User: Which sequence fits this backbone?
């Protein structure tokens, strides 16, 4: 993946950056507030990252554009607020939120986003978690957790690394837990069946025991479990119905746009107030001029993709519903063992069940489950071992990179993330992030660029910075880093010696806190309208 260009702005002011190369890019200035962070955050925000813009910047009122190259094909992103349009191989796709965009990026093999376990379900990692593999922003840094740690945390990040390494650790643990639960259940079934034989022979009348058992703690736990499953089923039904409704609205919209096409062929549709023949279709933050046949075709194609995507989401929710319903059925069959069996005694006696055969079958089933448990345990051990080896390798690389930059440093990195109560002072935090992003890159040899905003914060010395830049250059991939120089550094043309191996971009001439300028608006308009989107103010 290579980032080719970035643009942001609105009708009044804009900025376009097209000077990026596929090697090391150093964006610097002689002072803060020259727009470096806006550009860095704008790149990631256009591709679906959570907003981490400087305070006071109204990002919702702006368009954000980013063009990238993936496997020699160009992908273009346009975002305003929560709405996205993506151009991929001359097709346009529109999305109403980051989740839809994420699944598109996976479906179209644009990004290889790994899966992680979240809330007992295997899910595709969120974009902001995935992007932290190769992007370190200026704000919200926290070496003890992920940068956007609201929904995701460091456990999710490590789980994602495990999946990338070919051993989804959490998934193995989930399977193992399920198998152990089955073993416990079959053992309980065997014990209960033996009790049945004894009770049937000695005392068929067990109603007194049932009364005693029904008020037990175990029965109360069972009722809570069933209630929880019912709530989960209701929630998934609600989600599925919502997707059904969205799909129906999209299908109705296709009908309306096709009807509009027929109306245009038979005669013009004009505005009763101003007489304009321009017809606008609005989708949240984006507007499309559907009186243009090419744009209308692209919109219809995108809606068709959304309908297909909704069908896939509905199928996924239906599958998850089925899983929950199966679990509920299983739970109902697993009513606290004695109570369930006692309630069924009369039926079991009347049906003349061969208890000896039943016990034999359950014992055979138990043997198979225990053998499977042994295999799963071995797989779990292997996954844990691979995770341990991966973390040790990455941490070893981090320490090596840290020592190279700071041989006199007293910090020893013992994990990918620090402990919650550990803090870094001065340049140590920046050295940690530099070491982590490079170590992960070197371990996985991934194809994504490395982006670090304000990479020399904390008063990184010139000697340390020289080592960092040379290491970035040696990776032979796209790197984008930003830096604010002191006056003496700027006057000494600090980055002049790197020009043969790096693309040096000076933002010093930008007006302070005023990166966006009216002179770029025309360029941005051309970009926005190339998506078939109407270039307008936010409502």
Assistant:
């Amino acid at each position: 993946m290579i980032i080719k260009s970035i643009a942001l702005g609105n009708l009044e002011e804009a900025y376009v950056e097209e000077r990026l190369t596929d090697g090391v890019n150093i964006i610097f200035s002689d002072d803060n507030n020259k727009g470096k962070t806006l550009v860095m955050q704008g790149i990631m925000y256009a591709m679906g990252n959570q907003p981490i813009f400087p305070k006071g910047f109204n990002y919702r009122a702006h368009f954000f554009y980013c063009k990238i190259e993936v496997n020699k094909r160009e992908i273009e992103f346009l975002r305003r607020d929560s709405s996205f349009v993506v151009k991929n191989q001359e097709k346009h796709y529109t999305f109403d939120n980051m989740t839809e965009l994420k699944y598109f990026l996976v479906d179209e093999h644009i990004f290889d986003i790994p899966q992680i376990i979240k809330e007992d379900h295997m899910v595709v990692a969120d974009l902001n978690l995935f992007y932290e593999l190769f992007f370190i922003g200026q704000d919200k840094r926290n070496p003890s957790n992920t940068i956007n740690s609201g929904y995701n945390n460091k456990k999710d990040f490590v789980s994602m690394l495990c999946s990338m390494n070919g051993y989804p650790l959490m998934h193995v643990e989930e399977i193992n837990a399920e198998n152990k639960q089955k073993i416990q259940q079959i053992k309980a079934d065997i014990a209960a069946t033996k009790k049945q034989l004894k009770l049937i022979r000695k005392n068929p009348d067990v109603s007194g025991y049932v009364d005693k058992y029904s008020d037990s703690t175990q029965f109360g736990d069972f009722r809570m479990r069933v209630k929880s499953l019912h709530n989960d089923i209701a929630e998934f039904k609600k989600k599925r119905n919502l997707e059904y409704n969205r799909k129906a609205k999209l299908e109705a919209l296709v009908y309306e746009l096709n009807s509009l096409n027929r109306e245009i062929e038979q005669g013009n549709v004009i505005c009763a107030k101003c007489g304009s023949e321009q017809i606008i279709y609005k989708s949240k933050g984006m507007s499309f001029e559907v009186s243009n046949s090419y744009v209308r075709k692209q919109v219809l194609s995108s809606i068709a993709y959304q309908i297909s995507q909704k069908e896939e989401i509905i199928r996924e929710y239906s599958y998850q519903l089925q899983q929950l319903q199966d679990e509920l059925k299983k739970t109902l069959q697993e009513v606290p063992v004695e109570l369930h069996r006692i309630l069924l005694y009369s039926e079991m006696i009347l049906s003349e069940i061969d208890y000896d055969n039943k016990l034999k079958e359950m014992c055979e089933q138990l043997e198979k489950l225990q053998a499977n448990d042994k295999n799963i345990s071995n797989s779990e051990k292997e996954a844990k071992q691979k995770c341990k080896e991966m973390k040790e390798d990455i941490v070893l690389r981090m320490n090596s990179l840290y020592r190279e930059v700071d041989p006199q440093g007293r910090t020893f990195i013992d994990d990918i993330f620090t402990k919650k109560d550990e803090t870094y002072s001065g340049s140590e935090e920046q050295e940690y992030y530099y070491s982590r992003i490079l170590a992960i890159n070197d371990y996985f040899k991934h194809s994504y660029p490395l982006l670090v905003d304000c990479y020399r914060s904390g008063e990184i010395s010139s000697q340390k910075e020289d080592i960092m830049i040379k290491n970035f250059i040696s990776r032979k991939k796209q790197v984008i880093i930003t830096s604010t120089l002191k006056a003496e550094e700027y006057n000494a043309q600090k980055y002049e010696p790197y020009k043969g191996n790096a693309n040096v971009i000076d933002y010093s001439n930008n007006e302070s806190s005023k990166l966006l300028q009216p002179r770029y608006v025309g360029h941005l308009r051309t970009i926005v309208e190339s998506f078939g989107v109407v270039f307008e103010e936010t409502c």
